[in-house]
Amino acid sequence: AQTVTQSQPEMSVQEAETVTLSCTYDTSESDYYLFWYKQPPSRQMILVIRQEAYKQQNATENRFSVNFQKAAKSFSLKISDSQLGDAAMYFCAYRTYFGNEKLTFGTGTRLTIIP
Amino acid sequence: DGGITQSPKYLFRKEGQNVTLSCEQNLNHDAMYWYRQDPGQGLRLIYYSQIVNDFQKGDIAEGYSVSREKKESFPLTVTSAQKNPTAFYLCASSADRAPVDQPQHFGDGTRLSIL
């Protein structure tokens, strides 16, 4: 079974600065997907960024980028130029490449933005 | 607009009572999921269904039951056997072979509390 670990329950960053959220995972599969979800106080789950394991290039979406280290099974999220609207819970998630689409989530990191 | 509707937003249960949480989607998705969210534990999968009239237990199915009589509906019943039901419940759906940029769509959740 796959497991996802987020070792930082809480993080804070000054507005306009950069912050990195950590995620590690355990799997015996070679092909899979990884995701970062954001959950603001409204409790909606919003997909932030995704990474296909077979792609070596790190995914980037505007101010959000990942550092995907497949051998180390590490998938960190970097948020640049942090904004007040980035304050939320951030969840790392794993999905197998084949079969059903169920997601395995980490325990989350609460990100606070300091004005 | 297509989406997932969860109702009610807040629900209270008396000791020994069964309650049912509603989840309806108009996205024509094949698969549907129920997650439970507790502080510090992220999202944990309760049940999922990939086709009508079929469903599988997730990681924490004890004390819960589901049905999938229609493609668009996947209600979750929290039975009296669930001793600690207070939590936030999220419903999600995905298309068959869901595209990686939209792995799952989430509802807005139901908060269940014990009276």
Largest interface: A-B, 23 and 26 residues
Helical residue percent band of chain A? under 10%
Percentage of residues assigned to helices of chain B? under 10%
What overall form of chain A do the CA principal axes indicate? Answer: globular
Q: How many angstroms does the end-to-end distance of chain A come to?
A: 41 Å
Give the total of beta strands of chain B: 11
Main beta-sheet annotation of chain B: 7 strands, mixed
Strand content of chain B: over 45%
Low-confidence stretches of chain B: none
Q: What distance lies between the first and last C-alpha atoms of chain B, to the nearest angstrom? A: 35 Å
> What is the arithmetic mean of pLDDT of chain B?
90
Structural class of chain B: mainly beta
Q: What's the quaternary structure here?
A: heterodimer
Residue ranges of chain A: pLDDT <50 for 5 or more in a row? none
User: On the 0-100 scale, what is the average pLDDT of chain A?
Assistant: 93
How are helices and strands ordered from N to C of chain A? EEEEEEEEEEEE
What is the number of helices of chain B? 0
Strand segment count of chain A:
12
Biggest sheet character of chain A:
6 strands, mixed
| Relative strand content of chain A | over 45%
Alpha-carbon Rg of chain B, integer: 13 Å
How would you describe the overall organization of this protein?
The complex is a heterodimer of chains A (115) and B (115). By secondary structure, chain A is mainly beta. Chain A is built from no helices and twelve strands. In chain A, β7 (60-61) and β8 form a beta hairpin. Chain B is an all-beta fold. Chain B is globular, with a radius of gyration of 13 Å. In chain B, 38% of the residues are buried. The mean pLDDT of chain B is 90. Chains A and B meet through β6, β10 and β11 of A and β4, β5 and β9 of B.
